[in-house]
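#struct-help
A.M.: can someone run this one for me? Single chain, 69 residues.
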Amino acid sequence: MSRIAVRPYLVAKDAEGSFRVTVRTTRLNSQGYPLVTSTMLDGGFPTATSARTYLRDTYQAQATDIATK
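D.P.: on it. Structure tokens below:
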């Protein structure tokens, strides 16, 4: 199991061609291993740039907090 911290926001392209945003929360269990919970937000964005802009405006995310896939 990897202990590398994941970025809290993921922007990924779905099968329909729109970009979806996933918010990930990381917590540690009693042995110190990370447990990641992912929640995909409703709705999509036409471009990855608009999804990143939404994250910056809504969640005050920094560029280093956003992963793309």
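A.M.: thanks! The chain has a mean pLDDT of 90.
D.P.: also worth noting: The chain is about 15% helix and 35% strand.
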